[in-house]
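Example for tutorial group B:
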């Protein structure tokens, strides 16, 4: 594997120097601060994350081996597989696994398409362990592909306060054709409250005026969800303007 990595990714030196010990022109951090992260190669980005190499293998060589490994995996690899890479160890493997999962949650959803309530749950369920309610908005295009996922507001332990203008400000900016909203119930109970039903009604009314299809409102816990649409609590209304938006998930 080492020979392949060195040839393909430019493994280079074999000592265990840290980034700060590299020549100034080879330091990814300085390059990032000067030119921004987009200018860095994948190896340089991973080298910043790893920070140090090991005896006989500097940080950029270690980053090259990690990159080779990640390229062989279509999906996010298991933590145990990452930690088995020579020179990584549990601490670095934890950092890599955390980085990959955080990136997936924040920025990896944009190729997703919402076809059913469970698709929404997949994109927001990591908020379920929060001790306060989070109200989340998903901007969708006309094909119900995800344009953006945002936390609109954070509330109290058992209540979140949100105004329709806070939701639609982002939707209009995204030029969304449709949208979903979701919020967690820290108690684990999925029964909708009068406040949940009120904000759903207000969002539906505003959506009709703006001609943006309101696809669903999801209440969720760590392992389950409840859909306003699926339970018949989000009836479609005729938009105020002609619309080509579907009235269901299909």
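The residue assignment follows.
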């Amino acid at each position: 594997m080492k020979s392949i990595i060195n040839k393909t990714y430019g493994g280079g030196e074999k000592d265990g120097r840290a980034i700060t010990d590299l020549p100034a022109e080879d330091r990814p951090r300085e390059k990032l601060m000067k030119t921004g992260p987009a200018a860095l190669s994948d190896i340089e980005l991973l080298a910043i994350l790893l920070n140090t190499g090991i005896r006989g293998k500097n940080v950029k060589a270690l980053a090259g081996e990690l990159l080779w490994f990640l390229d062989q995996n279509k999906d996010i690899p298991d933590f145990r597989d990452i930690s088995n890479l020579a020179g990584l160890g549990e601490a670095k493997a934890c950092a890599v696994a955390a980085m990959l999962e955080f990136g997936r949650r924040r920025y990896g959803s944009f190729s997703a398409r919402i076809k059913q309530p469970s698709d929404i749950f997949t994109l927001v369920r990591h908020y379920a362990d929060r001790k306060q309610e989070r109200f989340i908005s998903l901007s969708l295009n006309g094909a119900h592909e995800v344009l953006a996922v945002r936390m609109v507001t954070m509330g109290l332990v058992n209540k979140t306060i949100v105004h329709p203008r806070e939701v639609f400000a982002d939707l209009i900016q995204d030029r969304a054709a449709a949208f979903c909203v979701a919020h967690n119930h820290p108690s684990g109970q999925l029964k909708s409250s009068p406040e949940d039903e009120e904000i759903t009604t207000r969002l539906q009314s505003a959506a009709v005026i703006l001609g943006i299809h309101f696809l669903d409102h999801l209440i969720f816990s760590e392992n389950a969800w409840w859909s306003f649409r699926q339970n018949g609590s989000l009836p479609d209304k005729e938009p105020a303007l002609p619309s080509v938006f579907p009235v269901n998930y299909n």
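The chain has two domains: 2-107, 117-227. Compare this with the pattern of hydrophobic and polar residues in the output above.
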